[in-house]
UniProtKB/TrEMBL annotation:
This is Lipoprotein.
Length: 253
């Protein structure tokens, strides 16, 4: 049965892959994120475009970048809802090093709408499973198993009072500003902010409530500075690395 589901999902991805233009019915409500453009020194810009269903439910996220070495890099994510919960994301990837990678993410919730299980089914990496327990102190226990692991392991995701992930249970820690994330207002995204779903090509975890100010890992750190619009969402973000400035700009509907 699982193989049938995966096959159907991949057929959907292939049938949608030519739908690059966002139609009038796929526009977001005013204030919803429309696109994110990342600029890097000595590289072409990367663009992430968002289309919607019903104004503030995601239909797709599409990433595209013209590589200096190997043509266009792209990946696309298609979203499927039950009521206001995201239950499936179907993705296809192509980069310099990855060709025809297809991934389906499945999400399960309890009766209160809390995410309790996330399954990642990849035609390259196999099946990865996360079972979540929501603790009384607000943190989340993540019992996970990847394809190459013989047993489940457990880590604790630390969550602050604003419902932002501040520690991934391994070696990364995060701090945040008090402004709204570009993804704030997308229905269903508020349930996934701690799930390691690798959607946006920068961080493993999707920001929903606030914006990351600093990331610290091992003996390294990175700091971000923002400019905001009147809705308190970012217009731009800068960070410095190896004496270069990397800029991200945000456009909204």
């Amino acid at each position: 049965m699982k193989k049938i589901k995966v096959l159907i999902g991949l057929l959907i991805i292939l049938s949608c892959s030519s739908e690059d233009e966002i139609t009038e019915n796929e526009l977001g409500n005013p204030g919803m994120i429309k696109s994110i453009i990342s600029s890097s020194p000595n590289e072409n810009d990367a663009k992430i475009s968002y289309s919607y269903q019903d104004g503030n439910k995601l239909k797709s996220i599409a990433y595209s970048k013209e590589s200096l070495d190997d043509g266009t890099l792209d990946y696309k994510h298609y979203f499927f809802y039950e009521d206001n919960l995201i239950v499936r994301i179907e993705s296809s990837y192509r980069t310099e090093n990855i060709t025809n990678l297809n991934v389906i993410n499945y999400f399960e919730y309890d009766n209160d709408g809390k995410l309790i299980k996330f399954t990642r089914d990849s035609n390259r990496d196999g099946i990865e499973t996360h079972n979540y327990s929501h603790l009384s102190n607000g943190n989340i226990s993540d019992s996970y198993k990847r394809q190459n692991m013989s047993n489940f392991q457990t880590k604790t995701l630390e969550i602050n009072d604003a419902k932002n992930l501040v520690s991934d249970g391994f070696y990364r820690t995060y701090t945040y500003d008090d402004k709204r994330s570009p993804h704030y207002g997308i229905i269903g995204f508020d349930k996934l902010y701690f799930a390691e779903i690798h959607l946006l090509g920068v961080e493993s975890y999707p920001e929903y409530y606030n914006n990351i100010k600093t990331i610290t890992w091992n003996f390294n750190s990175r700091s971000f500075s923002y400019k905001y619009n009147s809705d308190l969402k970012p217009l731009s973000r800068d960070y410095e690395d190896m004496n270069y400035i990397f800029t991200t700009t945000y456009q909204y509907y």
